Amino acid sequence: MQLEVLTPDKNLFSGEVEAVNLPGTKGAFEILNNHAPIISSLNEGTLTYKTGEGQKAINIKSGFVECLNNRVVVLVEGGESV
Fold this sequence. Notes:
mainly beta, five-stranded mixed beta sheet, globular, about 80 residues, five-stranded antiparallel beta sheet
């Protein structure tokens, strides 16, 4: 599935991933391939994603995620790679 992680200033990541773990406001959750459509708000925490090269992480302050048709767009405030 395609993942984009964006801040107001820059694109933190864009590419193919196998899984995305997010710090949702009602608890952490994971998005996998063919996930049902979802829009959710995000709390401060660590967003992790798994690519063919391994797992990577980004610390975020807050944000929103939308998943639709194997495309995940994450809009975050204050993202920095770990």
